[in-house]
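Sample pair:
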Amino acid sequence: MPKRVLDVGQCVPDHAAIRRLVEGNFDAQVVQAHSPDEAIEQLHDGPFDLVLINRKLDRDYSDGIDILKAIKANAEIAHVPVMLITNYPDHQELAQAAGGEPGFGKDALGSPLVREMLAKYLG
């Protein structure tokens, strides 16, 4: 059974790049969510092996850190690993302080390091 990744708040080109990266390198399926509510609902419907959240959601510009915090505060879904997608180290630090895993920026999508980071969750 393929692993499942929830991709939250990406624009169409970035979601396509993430989908190519994940589905091209792992036995995994990428599901997209556009809003905080949709992300939480999808996680409850689950299961998911990893959540990737954009630092600022494309559709409503809500803050990805807030979604990460909501996930980690919800006992039913808090176990799911979450990465923040951002090029800014200070935002990565905030995400990890809130319970997130070390994430990566979009400019690193094609790098071996990102594939290695994802392999920890996607095998």
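Residues 25 and 104 are 17 Å apart (CA to CA).
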